[in-house]
Amino acid sequence: MSVLKPFSKLPGLNTANILLVESEEQFQQSLAAALVEEAAVTVNVRLAKSLPLPMENEESRPRIDLVVFIINLTSELSFQSAEASLKYLDPGYFLGKVCFMVTNARSASVPTVRLDAVRKLAASLHCPLLFAEDQTPDGLTNATERLLTILKVAAGLVPMATALYLSNLTRCTVPTDIDQQNFD
Question: What is the pTM of this model?
Fold first, then answer.
């Protein structure tokens, strides 16, 4: 089992590589198809259910510019899988090359404890936390646009902007009262 390293390979010219990690693969396929449609740059999408990635094709694997953990809030397994996969990322990825995308946040069946756990995880790693509506075409379009913006910066395709700078602007923060009980 190898650790995924952000700077072990050279970048491709006018190319951005993204790794979508989702244990259930519900939103992953449609998001990947929408990302590939980008015309301004070449976007290569890699899909994984979890990390670590297999060792057999490590030499031919391109440099991964952005790792996106897609977490379905209606599934506890989705959160656990993302949390377990984090240990297979080199610490260099947490300098602006990792983000979390949450789906089904509007569902009435989602426990608030799970949403708070995802927010704490993203805040503790200083990573952006994006919310996506996976049930509508507009939600997919908005999620794609947000990810493309972050991906272009992480891949070094935006002049005068770095992934670390963008990460500081978009990182998730947790209010200080999140650990306190609500007495309403």
Answer: 0.91
From first to last of its 184 residues, the chain has per-residue pLDDT tens of 578 888 788 888 889 999 999 998 889 999 999 999 987 899 999 999 999 998 888 888 899 999 999 999 999 999 999 999 999 999 999 999 999 999 998 888 888 899 999 999 999 999 999 999 988 999 999 999 999 999 999 999 999 888 887 877 777 777 766 555 554 5
- Residue 137: is the preceding peptide bond cis (ω within 30°)? no
Compute the distance between CA of residue 89 and CA of residue 52 in angstroms, rounded to an integer. 8
With contact defined as beta carbons under 8 Å apart, do 133 and 85 qualify?
Answer: no
How many angstroms from the chain centroid is the CA of residue 150?
10
Dihedral of CA atoms 103, 108, 86, 58 in degrees, nearest 10, equals -40
Residues 23 and 50 sit within 8 Å (Cβ to Cβ) = yes
Q: How far apart are CA 67 and CA 91, in angstroms?
A: 12
